[in-house]
Design brief:
single chain, 22 helices, nine-stranded mixed beta sheet, Endonuclease, Chain A, 3 domains, alpha/beta
């Protein structure tokens, strides 16, 4: 394996590590320029405070006006409380920050462009009315949800799709490599994280070979990779392999709320016939080739058949945000070959932070509100708004078996401390919470009543539900749903149960950090 890995890694440009990488990267210059802009703003505020007559009166009127604004807005109640606290502590700076975030400085053009692309493709994947009819015959809940998702972003409900569930990143990786080798027309990849190593090197080797054979290869990753994993000129480096490559929202030397919206999606599409999604990024820890935070528990799904077209459309919408002549139609034709063992119905969907619709949270709440026997959840983070927390508690109180598996070893201790602030209230309502003792859970899974499930990229936290581009696959009566439930129960055997006693005996750090972080949870 080491010889194979050495061959793969020779494809990759050498990258600097750690501090050396930061010092010699463009990132340091950008960060310094942004700091300069912040210092200029603070200096202006200091001058304003010193020389403006009746500054205190102005500040009081200004603060009261912003409180009225908050109460009249449709902002989540938890976020309103956070902003009110900040305005009380530092009226003018907090008000300026609130105005800055609410006016969406720097991303209006992005929102307009995204709306345009959605409108242009609204009829690209028409909903088959016979599928809706058959869904309503099974039960009205999927029928209703399909109408909602069609209205929110034209996400049709499909039949003629086979779904394979992967209970680990390793399982997905093995099949993914085999599917990539069979590509004939195009390969589209969109991932939140790409990191150089064995996993990405193995994939890149195949992509480069396919590009030489005339297969169209496009790779897209979130721009924050330039800060953490990849060099800023990585797209140019990929051109030497014949690969089209771009970063979504790379860091630029100016303040912008645009940076708050990250591309958290994980999509891989091959020839419009095969599609992958789920929690697994393209980095070695996701397949446990290296260890970070203990054993890495993740999940993914593979679609074969008609529903792949929705993943293709989601990718093309993001890719064409910066293209002047977007092309969609040649890539969206439904595959002629139908899967051998299609079952149930499948509905891939996306969530966009620019439209304020909170599609991901709405689907989760729909599952909780309609569940009859159980809802079992795996998520790496638990930073809930009032609506979702009440939904979880209501489901448990009406007799639904609600269980949540969270990491036993966190990747972010402050986020972990914030998750623990929900434990007491949820468990008192009957929600059962477990922590995965071997390591870190990165899976994003909802499974309910052995008839419906969601596997995707959407965490139970503010960033996923409010600020990220996300995607997921809703499944109804597909053959893989029992496998998802079985995987949940197997994972449960490796977990410790959260009890009233364990909550009382939590370490002082998590108790104190959790209370502090709770104040600013909507801003995380």
């Amino acid at each position: 394996m080491k010889n194979e890995q050495s061959k793969i890694l020779r494809l990759l440009p050498k990258k600097r590590k750690g501090l050396t990488k930061f010092i010699f990267s463009r990132t340091l210059l950008i960060v310094l320029l942004i700091i300069v802009q912040i210092m200029v703003i603070l200096s202006f505020y200091k001058w304003f405070k010193q020389y403006m007559p009746h500054f205190e009166v102005f500040q009081a009127v200004f603060s009261i006006s912003m409180v009225f604004y908050l109460f009249s807005s449709d902002m989540d109640s938890s976020a309103k409380l956070t902003w009110m606290m900040l305005i009380t502590l530092a009226p003018i700076p907090a008000t300026f920050f609130l105005w800055y975030t609410q006016t969406d400085v720097g991303q209006r053009s992005l929102r307009d462009r995204f709306d345009y692309l959605v409108d242009q493709t609204r009829e690209a994947l028409p909903q088959n009315p016979d599928t809706i009819r058959r869904a309503s015959e099974l039960d009205s809940c999927t029928d209703d949800l399909c109408h909602y998702l069609n209205h929110m972003g034209c996400f049709p409900l499909f039949e003629n799709t086979e779904v394979t569930y992967f209970p680990s990143g390793e399982a997905k990786f093995e099949v993914l490599l085999e599917k990539l080798k069979k590509a004939e027309k195009f390969i589209f990849l969109e991932y939140f994280i790409i990191d150089e190593g064995y996993m990405w090197g193995s994939i890149l080797q195949i992509l480069a070979e396919k590009a030489k054979l005339g297969v169209e290869v496009r790779v897209m990753y979130d721009g924050m990779c330039e800060v953490t994993t990849l060099s800023y000129d990585y797209p140019e480096r990929m051109k030497r392999f014949g690969i089209q490559c771009k970063a979504f929202s790379p860091l630029r030397p100016f303040l912008s709320t645009h940076y708050n919206y990250r591309d958290h999606r994980k999509i891989l599409v091959i020839d419009g016939k095969v599609g992958f999604s789920g929690g697994v990024n393209l980095a070695d820890e996701y397949i446990n080739y290296i260890e970070r935070f203990g054993h890495w528990k993740d999940t993914a799904v593979m679609l074969e058949g008609d529903a792949v077209s929705s993943l293709t459309l989601l990718f093309l919408q993001m890719w064409n945000l910066t293209e002047t002549n977007p092309i969609f139609e040649p890539y969206l034709a439904l595959p002629d070959e139908k899967p051998e063992h299609p079952s149930g119905m499948v509905m891939p969907y996306g969530d966009c932070p620019l439209d304020g619709k909170r599609v991901g949270e709405s689907v989760y709440m729909d599952i909780l509100n309609r569940a009859e026997r159980y809802v079992h959840i795996m998520t790496p983070y638990l930073i809930l708004d009032d609506e979702l927390q009440n939904c979880l508690k209501f489901a448990a109180r009406r007799g639904v078996d609600v269980r949540i598996i969270l990491p036993g070893i966190p990747d972010k201790k402050l986020a972990y401390s914030l998750a623990k602030t929900h434990y007491k209230f949820l468990t008192q309502a009957g929600v059962k919470i477990y922590e995965y003792t071997p390591g870190f859970v990165h899976a994003k899974v909802f499974v309910s009543d052995n008839v419906k499930a969601v596997v995707g990229t959407i965490n139970l936290d503010y960033r996923s539900l409010y600020h990220h581009f996300e995607c997921a696959v809703y499944m109804h009566h597909t053959d893989c749903i029992p496998s998802i439930e079985e995987d949940f129960m197997r994972t449960l055997q490796k977990c410790r149960t959260v009890t009233p006693e364990s909550i009382r005996n939590e370490t002082l750090f998590y108790k104190v950090a959790g209370k502090i972080m709770k104040l600013i949870a909507p801003l995380m």
